Amino acid sequence: MSASDQVDVADAAALLAAASDVTLLAHVNPDADALGSALALGLALRRRGATVRVSFGYPAEVPASLRSLDSAGLFVPAAEVPARSELLVALDTGSVDRLGPLGDRVAAAGASLVVDHHVSNTRYGSHNLVDDRAEATAVIVARLLDALAVEIDEPIARCLYAGVATDTVSFRFAKPETHRLAARLLETGVDGSGLIRHLMDSHPFAWLGMLASVLAAARLEPDAAQGLGFVHTVVRRADSAGVRPEEVESVIDVVRSTAEAEVAAVLKETPTGDWTVSLRAVGRLDVRSVAVRFGGGGHRLAAGFTGHGTADEVIAGIREALVDAPTAT
To answer: Is residue 37 predicted with pLDDT exceeding 80?
Structure first.
């Protein structure tokens, strides 16, 4: 099977059912959809008798806000992931480089399955289950669990609900069938409101100081983004000292609320002096096209990339790329 081969849910489920040793990987700096999808599928496969491990390239530990999802202790640090697995599953990861230091495990595996919903996915697995119409990778994993005839109980449902709720921004962008899936997950006993508060609406006090500094530096350009408005800010390493990575990632959700801007961008300084860039759009411009231009990817309204140079140079590049960004039809 070539690296570009797409499989359906039934074929992917058959591949999973036949494996006795499975490594499931989320992307670096995992979010709730990436890690929740990996853990949900891992719980199901372990229940079927497989040896299972879940990991990601970095950080070294599960982010504090996501630890409650790993009810069975499936996570292992990147250093403990074997060089070769019978089956490797990469979840919510659009390209092999997003696996970071674990990217080499894909080619070494007996078989590799990519499960993802990003339109920019490069189909880097030997088997690829990619549906860019799904609002979250967790939605696709739920289909796989049904095909495997695995009961979705509360621990699995909690992981899936976390992924669906966060990637749809508390169901603001969810289709009717996704609401039906959410209802099914809640019926297992998942505390939906409590889980969403823990994942999205609860921050340590240090977050307020970081946010105050970062928002003070925000700039609004009403004439940019094809006259629809562009707002941006920068999180420098000094701003984020002592703050958890997930708190830094949450800044974009505040900046994107600017009423006068169609597009929001947040640049986050890395230890190497580069920038991880988060882009969001309200609905009229395609920011994925901007991210792809700089080697990144994502969705039409939510995307990202790694930027190089000064913050001003990265912002200038985004501003220029937005001139040609496709508009909604």
So the answer is: yes
